[in-house]
Amino acid sequence: MVAAGVLDDVQHVELWDGRLVRQTVKLPFHCAFLSNLIAELHRVVPAGWNDGPGSPLALGPWHQPDVGLALIRGGPRDHPDRHPTGAEVGLVVEFLNPSPDDGLGPVVAAFAGGGVPAL
To answer: Could you tell me the keywords of this UniProt record (predicted)?
Structure first.
């Protein structure tokens, strides 16, 4: 949608359940946790996997969420013209701060339906 001029590249939205949804603000704790997690993962993740912090995943026509972190098979140059699919993901780490009324069911269902192997 950015390439088509529908959205500019500074709007913080993601495609969720067929709708554009405003993304939550990343707090300093979130950024620090993510940096530390990436550093630890680099120590143990075998060659052939790439970390994708904040990268969208193509989980079908209705879901293209920006995830907190994904371990993606291959390197960053392996899919320059598309977002990785669930079948290319080995691990998703999502940072959620849901209210007690928010269920995680729709999130889990979207990842599973998009081919992410396990949560």
So the answer is: Plasmid
